[in-house]
Design goal:
Distance between the termini: 28 Å
Number of helices: 10
Low-confidence stretches: 1-49
Mean pLDDT: 85
Oligomer: single chain
């Protein structure tokens, strides 16, 4: 595995060959372990020591061998602090599952970024593009995206992550509860879009996986920081009763607009909110700050939810 991955690093365009130093070393690559039997990180690893470097933090996660060049083909402001990038990928071997992330290689930036994909696998299959939503921080890759990235900027991507939802046609239907905190919405929004694609396939062609219901609980500081809310409203309207969402704000200082009021709760996601969804046919996906993940995971365990039904992505 190490040999083929190193070879992939040298297969990227000439533009990026000067950045070979930013790819993992041989010893680091040996630490990357495939985990094909595990679809996401579970409670058993919750107490691992926090690491600040993306490659170190995700060293034991699944990674594809393919490293693909990509070009920025769209940039929008998702909020005052978050930019949404659209990236064109021409490599047909580049694929991902809803919920996974990418290693983000930038020419002349020594630090490798790690960002969850916020678009659906279907968008990549149909249009050859994927999307990332990146919050402004001093971390070099995020800082580059907010200060230097422009249309036609060229980067390289490699897919990784054990946190995903990828049901197969013969699998039994399940319901999902998605719980997001802040920019932790990114992989869960990818999963939500994938669920919408599964519903469309069932409705139009009566083929593929038969999806249950999805409930999204999404908490942010204020309504301005609720990413993708218009897209989420669109999905709720397109799939009434199948996709529902409850938005929560914890530090709202201004009046909530009338359009949003029916969907907004001021305060954190509560035990009562979650307990009503407990069932043997429900899977729980959580992404957000570690204290939130640890608190909600413990709460679900106290409700009797099996640990193999609780999945989380812990970035920080």
């Amino acid at each position: 595995m190490a040999h083929t991955t190193i070879s992939a690093a040298f297969a990227i365009p000439q533009l990026l060959r000067g950045t070979a130093r930013i790819f993992p070393t041989h010893s680091a690559l040996l630490r990357l372990k495939y985990s094909a039997l595990c679809s996401c990180t579970m409670n058993g690893t919750m107490k691992s020591k926090r690491k600040t470097d993306h490659l170190e933090r995700t060293a034991n996660n699944f990674r594809q061998e393919v490293i693909s060049p990509a070009k920025v083909c769209g940039i929008t402001n998702e909020s005052e602090t978050v930019k949404r990038l659209r990236l064109a990928v021409t490599n047909k071997d580049f694929t991902f599952k809803a919920g996974q992330w990418v290693d983000f290689f930038i020419p002349e930036v020594a630090v490798v970024g790690g960002f969850s994909i916020c678009s659906s696998p279907g968008l990549l299959e149909q249009d050859g593009v994927l999307e990332l939503a990146v919050k402004h921080t001093v971390h070099p890759p995020a800082h580059w995206i907010h200060t230097q990235c422009s249309l036609d900027s060229e980067v390289a991507l490699r897919v990784g992550g054990n946190f995903f939802f990828d049901p197969q046609p013969a699998d039994s239907p399940v319901n999902l509860v998605l719980i997001a905190g802040g920019v932790g919405i990114n992989p869960l929004f990818s999963i939500l879009l994938h669920v919408a694609d599964l519903h469309k396939n069932q409705e139009s062609e009566k083929i593929g996986y038969k999806m249950g219901t999805v409930k999204l609980y999404y908490s942010a500081k204020n309504t301005n920081e609720l990413l993708f809310k218009n897209n989420i409203f669109g999905l709720m309207n397109e799939f009434p009763g199948k996709i529902t969402c409850s938005f929560h704000v914890t530090q709202q200082s201004s009046q909530i607009c009338e359009e949003l009021q029916p969907y907004i709760t001021e305060g954190r996601i509560s035990e009562k909110d979650l307990e009503k969804h407990v069932s043997k046919d429900t899977l729980w996906y959580i992404c957000g700050p570690p204290p939130m993940i640890e608190s909600i995971s413990k709460l679900l365990e106290n409700f009797g939810v099996p640990t193999d039904c609780i999945y989380f992505e812990k970035w920080w």
